[in-house]
UniProtKB/TrEMBL annotation, chain A:
This is Paraquat-inducible protein A. It is found in: Cell inner membrane. It comes from the Bacteria. The chain crosses the membrane at residues 52-71, 83-106. One of its GO terms (cellular component) is plasma membrane. It holds the Pfam family PqiA. Its main location: membrane. Keywords: Cell inner membrane, Cell membrane, Membrane, Transmembrane, Transmembrane helix. InterPro entries: PqiA-like, PqiA-PqiB_transport.
TrEMBL record, chain B:
The keyword Transmembrane helix applies. The chain crosses the membrane at residues 45-64, 94-116, 137-156, 162-182. Coiled coil: none annotated. InterPro entries: PqiA-like. This is Inner membrane protein YebS. Keywords: Membrane, Transmembrane, Transmembrane helix. It comes from the Bacteria. Pfam families: PqiA.
Length: 214, 200
């Protein structure tokens, strides 16, 4: 590993450690942050292992989240069950394209891109990446910000099931996919949080040009 | 001048005291290191107190109600979380209750606990720094604003099928969410940390 000194030194190279919680810079020998008492670590311990563990757990939960119904509706004796995708299709049929789009983005596009981006970031630490370091930092920032919004569909189910309880006329109940989906969102949030972006900068950018010349 | 490391890439910076509204970005990766926002103790405290009161009241009043063909039903925030209680979605009840009211309430209460004594000239509580650290760690799990988007989606879904009424809790929660969003954009955690630092 060759340290990148073009911009200056990192806290770690200077024998310092910045608290991950309150950002106070301390000597690296300290165990705990003198300001907020958080345990001091220069890098998140076992970052990649934990990223992959949460990633796999999130992915496994995402499969039943799509196969089982998110909610079941009973209207005048007729019962129907909707999966995530099924719910989106019903919304389009009723003409609520905007709402369908919100649910589709929050429940399908965001989780899928989260899996892709986190995997890409973790792999980029394990082998040379074509993406610039800055681009990867931004990807991580975006995924941490956007990921939590996936929960919106779980809240919609909660509200509908709490409100639409009109006996024989209409009744909505949550399906097993709701908890699988919520778990998947929580696990992937933990996966993104476990990723330490500092790892992206701990080695020099890919030396593809130099390698070609050699 | 303060010595700070970029939270995204660990590069050390000597950051000068910034004028209000200015932000310092990392030389290498462009991540915002500090924004020069002054903490207005009065404003932050007022917002935190307002949020705790609003969320507390929102618990006891109906959030939304519907009526159709002579049948009607209303739900409070607690009842909304309780829909998952039967069967194996039961753990979701706790998760939903925490993310929509528990954690947003706790985060506001921590601010009141840590900053309240400073404002009124009392010594800062021993656990203020640890409490504020917890509040920062819980930040991604406070989902009041996401629940609010969820309410909007649910409303559009049922508004054609039944008559919908807005309860007192809906407006209280609406106000709390707006204040939380405003607070997130105007309070800089670094400034609160230095305030706690100065007091200890």
């Amino acid at each position: 590993m060759v340290p990148d000194r073009r911009y200056g030194v990192t806290a770690r190279e200077a024998g310092l450690v910045a608290c991950h919680r309150c950002e106070l810079v301390s000597e690296k020998d300290l165990q705990r942050c003198p300001r907020c008492n958080a345990r001091l670590r220069s890098r998140k311990p076992q970052s990649l292992q934990r990223v992959w563990a949460w990633w796999i757990a999130g992915f496994l939960a995402y499969i039943p989240a799509n196969l089982y119904p998110m909610l079941t509706t009973r209207q005048l004796g007729r019962e129907s069950a909707d999966t995530i995708i099924g719910g989106v299709i019903v919304l389009i049929e009723y003409g609520s394209v905007g709402i369908a789009l919100i649910i589709f983005v929050a429940s399908v596009v965001v989780p899928m891109s989260k899996f892709l981006v986190i995997a890409l970031l973790a792999l980029s630490i394990m082998r040379p990446s074509r993406l610039s370091q800055k681009a990867r930092i931004h990807l991580h920032e975006v995924i941490e910000f956007v990921g939590r919004w996936s929960m919106v569909d779980v809240f919609v189910v909660a509200l509908l099931a709490a409100l639409v309880q009109l006996g024989a006329a209409a009744e909505v109940n949550p399906g097993p996919a709701a908890i699988c989906f919520a778990l998947s969102v929580a696990f992937t949030m933990l996966s993104a949080q476990a990723f330490d972006p500092r790892l992206i900068w701990d080695t020099l950018p890919a030396k593809s040009k130099m390698e070609k010349q050699a | 001048m303060t010595l700070l490391a970029c939270p995204a890439c660990d590069l050390l910076h000597e950051v000068p005291d910034l004028a209000p509204g200015r932000r310092a970005r990392c030389r290498r990766c462009d991540t915002v290191i500090v924004s020069g926002q002054r903490v207005s103790l009065d404003r932050t405290l007022a917002m935190a107190v307002a949020v705790t009161v609003l969320i507390f009241f929102a618990l006891f009043f109906p959030f939304l109600s519907i009526s159709e063909l002579g049948l009607s039903n209303s739900a409070t925030l607690i009842e909304i979380a309780l829909v998952f209680m039967s069967g194996w979605t039961a753990p979701l009840t706790i998760a939903v209750a925490l993310t929509i009211v528990g954690i947003p309430f706790l985060r506001a209460a921590i601010l009141v606990y840590a900053l309240g004594p400073i404002r009124f000239g009392y010594p800062i509580p021993d656990k203020a720094a640890q409490a504020f650290r917890l509040s920062q760690a819980l930040r991604p799990w406070a989902m009041a604003e996401i629940f609010f988007l969820g309410s909007a989606v649910a409303l559009v879904k049922i508004i054609d099928l039944a008559h919908v009424g807005f309860g007192a809790a809906f407006w209280a929660f609406c106000a709390a969410t707006l204040i939380i969003a405003f607070e997130r954009n105007t309070t800089d955690s670094a400034a609160i940390w230095s305030l706690i630092d100065d007091m200890e």
